[in-house]
Fold this sequence. Notes:
This protein is α+β, with helices and mostly antiparallel strands and 431 residues long. The protein contains 22 helices and 7 strands. It has helices at 2-5, 14-19, 29-42, 45-55, 62-73, 98-103, 107-111, 116-129, 135-143, 148-160, 166-174, 179-188, 196-209, 212-223, 228-242, 248-261, 264-275, 295-304, 310-313, 330-333, 336-344, 414-425, and strands spanning 315-316, 319-320, 356-361, 366-374, 378-383, 386-391, 395-400. The chain has a 5-stranded antiparallel beta sheet, with no helix packed on it. A two-stranded antiparallel ribbon has the order 1-2. Strand 3 (356-361) and strand 4 form a beta hairpin.
Amino acid sequence: ARAINDDFSIEEALPQLAVTLKDERFTSEALIRRAINANLRVGTEENLNILADYASRGSAPAEMRAEAIAALSTWEKPSVLDRVDGRYRGEVLREDANVMTTLAPVIGTWIADTETEVQMAAAKAAGKLSIKAAENGLLALLQEGVGEEAQVAALESLSAMESGLLSDALELGMASRSNAVKSSALAILPESGIAENKAVPLFEDILRTGTTANKQAAFTALGGMKGSEAKKLLGTYLDRLLKGRVAQDIQLDLLEAAEQQEDIIFDDKLTTYYASKDPNNSISAYSEALYGGNPQRGGQIFYTNEAAQCVRCHSIFELGGNAGPGLMGVGARLSREKLLESMVAPSAAYAAGYEVVNLKLTDGSSTAGYLQSENSQTVKLKVGEKITEIAKADIESRTSIPSSMPPMGSILTKRELRDLVATLASLQPES
């Protein structure tokens, strides 16, 4: 299976690999993932049916059934990257009415499945493919109090397909005990068509009593509303911010919501707020990124953000590069302020063993290397593979070479920085 699917593939053999999914004897995840992918890549009506049949097979592992459903959700436009090994496969576009005909009768069964992974995959597929036949099943997911990830998927799918049941779904979402579901409902609310005079009091209550995630979602939603009641509520919180009375973990969300309004009154208040920042403090401009981040999202940024490419130089649990310091346990070694500084002003301070110094010596020669240690008398540098000790009396001048890490403030948004700070702060020493 690896030989047929991975790397450059043996494309002529993909159809034979695809049909192995019909054989119930096979249970190896490595094989099954490749068989699912082979069906998606070959893309005939037979492959469509093979995937749908496998997704309905109750004896199959829930994770693999969910993978089959996820593959089906991309049937008309699969990712240009291989689902298994990530190799670039090129763009594929299929205008295939069969996918709707095949899935419409069975997707309700998947949504009602006892396995949360299957429910979640089916809910996402329904929204992605806009399968209206799934509407009642999606609403039932919200009513029956199943896993919160599946409920969020159901809510988002009803919104994506502009369902007539969305108002009922939002009412259930706002009343949910799950913060994730409630936050999702808050984020969808501005686009749902609900009257602003009904929505703003809900937001006001959330901002008084909700969790951090709920409050962040409320501000995000308010940013999309342009009526007088939304502006009045945002203005109240901006005034509190100027007086230092807004919690740090929601400041960024408030500022972004106010900026979205494009209102002259808000602009004046925002100018006053930003003018109060210390220009000599390297992290002052990014202080809203210190608290309120999501460690899970931050982990995704660390491993997958193509612009930042953190994982090329840094490692967590030995996964990643070694051009920069390893980050396991960094949350215990550095404060949030230092973590943020290391990202937005990487040359302000150096991890031990990673500062490169250039020394001009009194005899006219010069040398450069990684600073290992120093005391009042000597400096130890790692030059190539050797440790060289140099007397300070022999040094005429010394300069630190700027860090090769680019300032992340010019690459990542404040929200992304906030999530990364949360991730790094969560990295405690291994037991």
